[in-house]
């Protein structure tokens, strides 16, 4: 199995992995108190980015694009689709000249995590081949609860300790958060 030469997020996540109301409930903030909504929401987005980077996954439906050499595709390679669960939405493949590669030339495995795409051998125009796909959960309710709880703990920690340094020195993310995220990592490490 080969790897993409490079891949990147094409768009931002469709939805954040935590809602503002569920996070405010965790923080014991009344729903009618909207004074800190903007900062709480920014902490939700920061927690999502932090968790995704540490676990090498995508939490909510997000589109990615990766490039492969035409020689690899021509030989009939299999490529892993990184960033966790691959959504069964349309995977597209285009050649360097922007032409779509016929779907009969490849098959997509979205059942296994991570998913993969396997090309059948055959001629391909010279240049990079671009694959686009979606990773993450289509429904935020399907995100494992340990990850959601860890995210809420991160937001609560950042909300309570908004400065990088306090009179008591620096403060680390609580150990419970580390343990919750380690249980969802591929290797048990956070």
Describe what this molecule looks like in 3D.
The model has no long low-confidence stretch (mean pLDDT 86). β5 (106-109) and β6 form a beta hairpin. α2 packs across α4 (145-160) and α4 (145-160) packs antiparallel against α5 (175-182). The protein has 5 helices and 7 strands; from the N terminus they run βααβαβββββαα. The strands form 2 sheets. The protein has a 4-stranded antiparallel sheet with strand order 1-2-7-4. It is elongated, with a radius of gyration of 20 Å. The longest helix is centred in the first third of the chain and has 19 residues, at 37-55. The two termini are 26 Å apart. It has helices at residues 20-26, 37-55, 70-74, 145-160, 175-182, and strands spanning 6-9, 62-69, 78-81, 92-94, 106-109, 115-119, 128-135. With 190 residues, it is an alpha+beta fold. Helices cover 29% and strands 19% of the residues.
H/E series, N to C? EHHEHEEEEEHH
Termini separation comes to 26 Å
The neighbouring-strand order within the major sheet is: 1-2-7-4
What is the number of helical segments per DSSP (H or I, 4+ residues)?
Answer: 5
Proportion of residues in β-strands: 15-25%
Rounded to the nearest angstrom, the radius of gyration is: 20 Å
Helix content bin:
25-40%
């Amino acid at each position: 199995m080969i790897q993409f030469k490079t891949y990147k997020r094409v768009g931002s996540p469709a939805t954040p992995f935590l809602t503002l109301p569920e996070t405010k409930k965790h923080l014991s903030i009344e729903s009618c108190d909207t004074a800190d909504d903007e900062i709480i929401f920014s902490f939700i987005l920061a927690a999502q980015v932090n968790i995704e980077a540490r676990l090498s996954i995508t939490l909510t439906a997000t589109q990615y694009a990766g490039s492969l050499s035409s020689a690899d595709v021509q030989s009939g390679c299999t490529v892993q689709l990184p960033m966790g669960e691959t959504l069964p939405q349309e995977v597209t493949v285009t050649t360097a000249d922007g032409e779509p590669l016929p779907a009969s030339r490849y098959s997509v495995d979205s059942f296994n995590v991570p998913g993969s795409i396997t090309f059948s051998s055959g001629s391909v125009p010279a240049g990079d081949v671009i694959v686009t796909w979606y990773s993450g959960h289509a429904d935020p309710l399907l995100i494992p609860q340990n990850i959601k709880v860890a995210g809420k703990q991160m937001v609560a920690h950042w909300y309570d300790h908004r400065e990088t340094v306090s009179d008591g020195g620096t403060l680390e993310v609580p150990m419970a958060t580390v343990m919750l995220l380690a249980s969802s990592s591929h290797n048990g490490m956070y």
